[in-house]
Every structure is written in C-alpha cells, then in structure tokens.
Amino acid sequence: MKVRYSTNWMGPVNKKWIDENGKDWCAGRIDVYGDDVPEYTELGLNIMKGKDWVRFTRWLEGNFTTPEIWTTEQLVQAYEFHNPKITWWEKK
Prior knowledge:
Blueprint: E1 4-11, H1 15-21, E2 25-33, E3 42-49, H2 50-60, H3 72-82
C-alpha cells in the first residue's frame, strides 16, 4: 500500500483566541489517501506556527509516502529528522 498525506487548515478562527495569542498560528488535520485507505481517514494536527505549517504541508504533499498509515506523531518525527522543529502552541 502507498499512503499519501495532505494538511487541511481549519483554524484557529475564534477572534478572541487570535487577539490573545496572535494570528500567526495554524491548526487542522491531516487527510490520508491511498488505494486501500478507508474514505475520510484523517489525523488530528495541533496548533503550530504558521511558517511551520507551510513547511510541514510542503513536505507532506511532496513525494512523501508510507507503506501503511502512520500516526501524527510518526509523521512529525520523520519531518523533524531533516527539518526544523515545529513550534507548537502552548496554553499560557
């Protein structure tokens, strides 16, 4: 099986949250695709800096594939092996 991944931006979209934390944050999910992947398979993706979202998205949507569905943690670990660490949002 050849599994592909794509990010799907979903926020943050709450104005109060943005006012308190700034607008350079992205969150959403990872959509999972492949011939034997069940339809609508997705993985959660926590809030990260916008620049990290862009780099991670480009990496995922490049030629990256896996032989089976990986977890979000596995994908992030593989990404960070050769790329800058992702800056995750932390509750204040």
